[in-house]
């Protein structure tokens, strides 16, 4: 069964100027339910993640100041919006949804978080609308319970997964692979285990060719026991922040390449949705829904 973490708090309204991107968190499950791709049985609402698990990844002082809403104005500007208790609660639920997704992925092969992909959050900082790094937190939760596990994090959002790269910089059990816009945010990049920076205007043909060759080699070399996939749709040509040139069908083929590799190699995969900033909300929702549709067709 396709299991999907979703909670109404995911769509918690942000200050003016940030509300539009949040619409997708309501519209994605609504569209999938409307199409009959999923039923309410596929959706689950995560609890808030406990402090102990979060502190496997994030610095204690940073986390305390985050939860007490005492981060400095400069640190809040780096995150991109003023802190509120409800936003912190939202981040904790997203992280728990990704951990729960790991359990479901092991049971069913794949699982989703409608939100997540908060890959700009590092050990002791938040950035780019990210406060807690959901996939890094979930990876460290897996590693705490199974220290010998090998994990591959595949980040295909248009922005480099700088926080994830920093968190696993000195831990070889978590291999970080980021394929992203070379001239895009964050402008100060961290070092992933494998970075593939792409020039502005990179076509879908080139993107898909690089991904197909690289991912198959990585899986053969790393032999991961578990994969995290960040499936941001800001790679679309319509995206106002993306600078790449993928069509909707090419974005769908990107997801197919990842899922096919996971499926044929029998590697569980947890998927968080990441970014998407096309001016037309329909483009964002269609691209994200394609990711769910593909998984449902391939696995179920």
UniProtKB/TrEMBL annotation:
InterPro entries, alphabetized: HDAC_classIV, HDACs, His_deacetylse_dom, His_deacetylse_dom_sf, Ureohydrolase_dom_sf
Gene3D superfamilies named among the record's database cross-references: Histone deacetylase domain (3.40.800.20)
RNA-binding in keyword set: no
Domain Histone deacetylase: 24-290
This protein's record includes keyword Manganese: no
Alphabetized UniProt keyword annotations: Hydrolase
Gene Ontology molecular-function annotations: histone deacetylase activity; hydrolase activity
UniProt GO BP: epigenetic regulation of gene expression
PANTHER family the UniProt entry points to: HISTONE DEACETYLASE 12 (PTHR10625:SF19), HISTONE DEACETYLASE HDAC1-RELATED (PTHR10625)
Stated family: Belongs to the histone deacetylase family.
Descriptive protein name: Histone deacetylase
């Amino acid at each position: 069964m396709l299991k999907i973490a979703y909670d109404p708090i995911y769509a918690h309204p942000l200050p003016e100027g940030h509300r539009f991107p949040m619409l997708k968190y309501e519209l994605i499950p609504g569209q999938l339910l409307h199409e009959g791709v999923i039923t309410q049985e596929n959706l689950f609402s995560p609890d808030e993640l406990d402090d102990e698990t979060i502190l496997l990844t994030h610095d204690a002082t940073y986390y305390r100041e985050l939860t007490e809403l005492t981060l400095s104005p400069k640190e809040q500007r780096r995150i991109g919006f003023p802190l509120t208790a409800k936003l912190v609660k939202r981040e904790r639920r997203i992280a728990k949804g990704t951990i729960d997704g790991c359990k479901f992925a092991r049971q069913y092969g794949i699982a989703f978080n409608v939100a997540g992909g908060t890959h700009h959050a590092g050990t002791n900082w938040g950035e780019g609308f990210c406060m807690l790094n959901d996939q890094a937190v979930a990876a460290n939760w897996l590693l705490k319970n199974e220290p010998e596990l090998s994990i591959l994090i595949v980040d295909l959002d248009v922005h480099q997964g700088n926080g994830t790269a920093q968190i696993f910089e000195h831990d070889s059990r978590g291999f970080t692979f980021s394929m992203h816009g070379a001239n895009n945010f964050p402008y100060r990049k961290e070092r992933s285990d494998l970075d593939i920076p792409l020039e502005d205007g990179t076509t879908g043909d080139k993107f898909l060719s690089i991904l197909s060759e690289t991912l198959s080699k990585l899986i053969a070399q790393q032999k991961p026991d578990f994969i995290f996939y960040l499936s941001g749709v800001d790679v679309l040509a319509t995206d106002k922040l993306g600078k790449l040139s993928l069509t909707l069908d090419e974005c769908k083929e990107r997801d197919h390449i990842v899922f096919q590799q996971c499926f044929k190699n029998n590697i569980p995969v947890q998927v968080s949705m990441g970014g998407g900033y096309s001016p037309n909300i329909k483009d964002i929702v269609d691209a994200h829904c394609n990711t769910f549709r593909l998984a449902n067709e391939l696995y179920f």
